Amino acid sequence: MAPKYGGTPAFLGLVEIPMSPGTKAEFLEPSGNVRFQVELTDLQGPILKVNVKKL
Question: Cα Rg for the chain, rounded, in angstroms?
């Protein structure tokens, strides 16, 4: 699948999706420059919330 806005998609690693709403899982990408937080929301869905922070 080609990226919509240019660039190259990359697989950085695996993070397990939490099973309980409000619980967060974190993943630090291999270079240590970006942290991903994944949270299962309590909205009808299931719907995931993903926060990404440059470190």
Answer: 13
- Give per-residue pLDDT as tens, 32-42: 999 999 999 88
**DSSP category for residue 41:** -
Is residue 50 packed enough to be buried (19+ CB in 10 Å), middle (13-18) or exposed (0-12)?
exposed
**Whole-prediction pTM:** 0.71
Nearest to 29 by CA among 15, 13, 52, 17: 13
The length of the chain in residues reads: 55
Residue 54 neighbours by CB under 8 Å, 6+ apart: 33, 34
Q: 46: cis peptide before it, omega within 30°?
A: yes
Q: Which two tokens stand for residue 26?
A: 């974190």
Which residues lie across from 28 on neighbouring strands?
35
